[in-house]
Amino acid sequence: MPVQAGQNADKGTVQDVFLFSPPARFPSTVESPGKIQAPQRRTGFRAARFLQNCFSRRDWGGLAMVAAVAMIAAWLVCLPFSTAVQQTTINRFHLATRSFAAWAVQQPIPPMYNLENRYWLAHQRLTPDQLVVPPAVGIKTGMVNHFPTRLATFADSRARMMQNPLETWLYVRSRYQSQQRTTEWRLRPDDGGGWVLTGGPLE
Predict the structure, then answer these.
(1) How confident is the model over 15-29, as pLDDT tens digits?
(2) What string of H, E and C letters represents the secondary structure of 177-201?
(3) Collapsed DSSP state (helix, strand, coil) of residue 13
(4) Count of alpha carbons within 13 angstroms of residue 13, beta-carbon side
């Protein structure tokens, strides 16, 4: 017999209570084994729902983020087709943008593998012909995937050059389709242990 309210529980064991008690009834969420309902899927694009939520909640930060992503995507889509976008991207890599503000606005745009960037490092000034056929000795050349001027301003090559007191010439050529730019940089050591970087375009 199950233990009734008000009776002494010592009269029956826990097993007796468990075996002879009426089974508890719980609400069933499944009508029958063959009628399991699948969760409902939301319709529509997630981006559209995100924009709708931003407008309804006046989330200006979210809208600004979407606008920035859209502008970056539009810039990258235009890169293969617009010579103006190509030249602007090249100028960015050569520190030749018209203003610092215009250069800074482009920083969120991914720079990796956008252009063909070749560099030449030498302790003597090179002629345009020597850039086509470099001398056998006394020059280092290679490819850089982005921001080639970092060879003189940031990368480990800057540290190596600063250990050498000789004057160094850095040539950088960036190319995209028919657009290209070559810049000549002259690096002179100063009395403070740094470098004075001067230069300008060759073409």
Answers:
(1) 444 444 555 555 555
(2) CCEEEEEEEEEEECCCCCEEEEEEE
(3) coil
(4) 3
